[in-house]
Prior knowledge:
It is built from 9 helices and 8 strands. With 316 residues, the chain is of the alpha/beta class. The protein has one domain (7-305): 3-Layer(aba) Sandwich (Rossmann fold), CATH 3.40.50. It is globular.
Amino acid sequence: MLRSTSPEQLSAIKSFLRQTSRHDGKPADQIRREMDAAASAIPLLPATCVQQTAIGRLQGEWVCTDTGETCPDEIKRIILYFHGGGFTSGSCAMYRGLAGRLSEASGVKVLTVQYRLAPEHTYPAANEDCLSAYRWLITNGYPAQNIVLGGDSVGGSLALMTLLSLRDAGEALPAGAFLLSPHTDLVHLDGESYRSRAELDPTGSQQGNQAIADAYLGDWPGEPPALLSPLRMELCGLPELYIQAGDHEVLLSDATRFAEQATKAGVQVSLEVWDEMWSVFQFMAHMLPEARQAIANIGRFVRSALKLPPVGGAIE
């Protein structure tokens, strides 16, 4: 992938992330406060519009950018986005910046979901909430073919688990899904990149990801549910998938192995691996040209999946 940020800038950013992104041993409320504070410093695009909404019993936010390209409401083509945060943190407010950029790149509205968090709400609470949000859209007049799922980190996991649950229930699947640095195996954590990228990754580690899995499972009895390891499930019948990962993240193998397995199962998959990038580098689009280009690529995928012309063309 094209690299635009200088080596000196990348080194400085990674050094900062190493100091601020590790949350080992911290209580969930402290992690949430710190992450919300960090996100509040990220500037929104000037044209970002935010509208809070009730999604059944859940809360969510509609986010769009008033650029003249966003689809009219009557067309009802959208992105349903599940945020990351290790199942214990993350919020709609924290993701307004990224959601606004995704809306600008795709020309469609983004709906973010405030799903329940661990440790107060363990498995399957977040899974149930994501499924509920998708079904709420269907009930409220959004055809499945007009919806693209998106998510980062564990939000990418939730997008995959939502797809698998819908498929197994015989329900209509969305037009596609994009996954940013997804956890595709929260059970075994045995990807090669846990070792080869351990010193390169400024934000993630095998120990940290084990803590993520433990927090979400809580007191779950017996073996972890198979759904927490999409990598090892039957993947046939899923819609088109678009995956982005960083070459310096410990989750790289989760992305590459999943893309390989899904392709073998007959799923159309596109995988981008960005040189010298880390998990969910797209979150720093306000300062990283690579992140802005990655989001532009996501926008093209979304419009293709929704059968929309390139941004600037007439809506069908």
